[in-house]
Amino acid sequence: QLLLEESGGGLVQPGGSLRLSCAASGFTFSRFVMKWSRQVPGKGLEWVSSIYTDGRTYYADSVRGRFIISRDNAKNTVFLQMDSLRPEDTAVYYCGAPIGGVVQRGPGTRVTVSS
Hints:
The protein has no helices and eleven strands. It is mostly beta strands. It starts with a strand and ends with a strand.
């Protein structure tokens, strides 16, 4: 059974940091690109970052230079280090993997950036 479970969200002040984790199971993690996306209630899903099997990373313009994506294939986990957080980063964050033509996602973890 394919499972993705995000964790690490919470409330943080502007300028603060959070590290999100996504534990994966039920598929060969090391063979798939992993992605982070986010969604503000009432708005569409926004792609944030991707990390490929060879380690290449890509970022949305809105987070480049502040967020870092990484993966630990031995632990089947993908991370998102988020620094210099801004109120506009407030959203539910999802990890995802394109498997079988469909992007599988976890239930998400909520990030709130507020003073």
